[in-house]
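tool_call: predict_structure(chain=1)
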Amino acid sequence: MKIQTIQSQLESLSNPEKKAYFPTFFKTGKGQYGERDLFIGIIVPDIRKVAKANKDITPEEIELLLNNSFHECRMCALMILVEQFKKRKKENERKSIFDFYLSHTSRINNWDLVDLSAKDIVGEYLADKQDRTVLYELAESSLLWDQRIAVIATFAFIKRHDFTDIIKLSEKLLYHKHDLMHKAIGWMLRETGKKNKSVLIGFLDKHHQSMPRTMLRYSIEKLSAEEKSYYMRKM
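tool_result:
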């Protein structure tokens, strides 16, 4: 099967040092967000090469790869899905990939898997749509990865100077308990500030005193030293 070939290709690229390090880096211990995840030990550029070499596999094969126990196999599946989405121009073809992606979010189960795919599939699909209700449904989900997908997807809008949804989602998830969400929101707010500083400043002026500190730090990274000092001091 093609999937067995892909996994063999990935396994041939295994780095013993990475294989030992990744379980700690991606928090796979008991009770941690990546609990029980397994790693082959491959760097992202090498996974991308395998994905590009196998980008024409079928949806059924992608699903099998996405259900694989190894993190890098799931990443490869998502990279292939992103490549296929970029090639599709017809609305029905793009929607099919979008729907497939959202039906498998339980397998997009770590922050790096979300970050390399959500903006390029969910974000790009919704970028020209008026109805983005699905983002708020994801934000309401009990699954951390759904919530992060909702936030990271807005990167595609931010690039187009469309800030409405990241501001709404940031306010909706402002008091989220998980630092992975604090980082994601802070990152998207920082990107917002790079496109339109006044939008970021408006958000900070309203919320900086109650924002989680990690979220605040991420959001102000590109501000001047004086501005950073001001917002950190006001905490």
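agent: Residues 1-87 form a domain with the Leucine-rich Repeat Variant fold (CATH 1.25.10.90). Proceeding to next step.
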